Amino acid sequence: MLTAGLHALESADISEISLRALAREVGVSATAVYRHFPDKRALLEAMAREGLAQLGQMQQRAAMEAGDNAFSATGRAYVRFALANPSLFRLVFTHCPVRGDGLPEGNLAADMLLASAARFTGGDKQAARRFALQSWALVHGLAMLMLDGQLPADEALIDQVIDGPTMWPAAS
Hints:
By secondary structure, the protein is mainly α. It is built from 9 helices and no strands. The chain has helices at 2-9, 19-26, 30-36, 40-66, 70-84, 86-95, 108-120, 125-147, 155-163.
């Protein structure tokens, strides 16, 4: 069901996805679906968690490949994921539960962001959280502006905004 839902999201709006239609597609009864997903919201939440996991994996790969430039690489990966998966990206941030620090629950990317931010802030937890939220706001805002057509989805612009002179403090 989860795979079918993610596949349906590639070509349909969230509002068009139905548990009954997905059940028919995967060859199970509608009542069987409700044992796993009590309602559409539960399925969308599971899809959002999967999208968040995919985003985290993409950012983790980018960080590993970038070495010393891992922080910027994860930001670029974030924007590129959004552009490659616009419906899934929007679903992640409309249907994923939020944890106490304001970041999506179960978010490997958020945990990586907080850990990286701590390097830039000398271990000050409050400053690290603020820096993490500023960094997330920058890449999320850039992604949304590009998805909404307010800025061109341009690789050079992504690099310019994320790697250019910004509020990023020097790494310690």
